[in-house]
């Protein structure tokens, strides 16, 4: 297993923290305090998006921390800004809202295949990277066929793909595919909180008790040991902190396999083929 105390090096050289802080459902009002708390606790990756309408608040939290140069700030272009010109304008708006002169990682939020514009969008992101407006570019919710097409038509591979991934939907085959391609995987919805009661699963209770950790920490540790980068969101200071306390214990192979066994193969979120 890689040294989980060290950041993961992406194919383009960016050093990606092993865990990030999600901000979906935080607002411009609630994000500054939550982001400040997260950075104070030690998070060094903050995930936002044009869609979340909180980039102003996220940027405030990052700038107030005095840690800007240590933090990987990640945002995403939304589905109504695919094309040749629009992604660049969306990126400039995000930079302005964040109050930063560089976004570290910029992602295409969904492939939106019915629009058939994601290759143009990808070219626009590659140009923005050439100009230094973003350090690293990637995608989110892309399936292998979408990524193959990006590579075939532009010659530029994404450094990472952020996808729905948690023990109820563990995406084993997709993780293997990304590993073969050298594309990092980030996990959204990492705690599997949208449906069902993952945290109440007996196997998680048992493993939690065995390590003196809570179910959220066990799930996040499971991600780290699978080499995926989870971006849990919380607006609760105690959970923000506890979600980061996952570097002082290790799951055994048997425990990893038991948690793998919770997979249902069913998404909790939307399907990349149909979101447009
Ligand atoms: N690329 C995409 O399409 C996409 C889609 C969805 C999400 N995302 C990103 O991924 C991030 C995470 O996904 P998510 O917010 O959907 O789901 P999540 O992080 O798995 O779950 C967040 C929910 O779990 C609760 N929670 C957090 N820590 C907990 C703990 N230790 N124990 C129990 N409950 C806990 C939070 O409530 P409290 O706030 O009350 O703690 C919140 O209701 C988002 O914030 C966003 O940045 C990306």
UniProtKB/TrEMBL annotation:
Alphabetical list of Gene3D superfamilies matching this protein: NADP-dependent oxidoreductase domain
Start and end residues of each NADP-dependent oxidoreductase domain: 18-263
Pfam annotation, one family: Aldo_ket_red
Record keywords, A-Z: NADP, Oxidoreductase
PANTHER family for the chain: 2,5-DIKETO-D-GLUCONIC ACID REDUCTASE (PTHR43827), NADP-DEPENDENT OXIDOREDUCTASE DOMAIN-CONTAINING PROTEIN (PTHR43827:SF3)
Family from the record: Belongs to the aldo/keto reductase family.
The protein's name: Aldo/keto reductase
Organism: Salininema proteolyticum
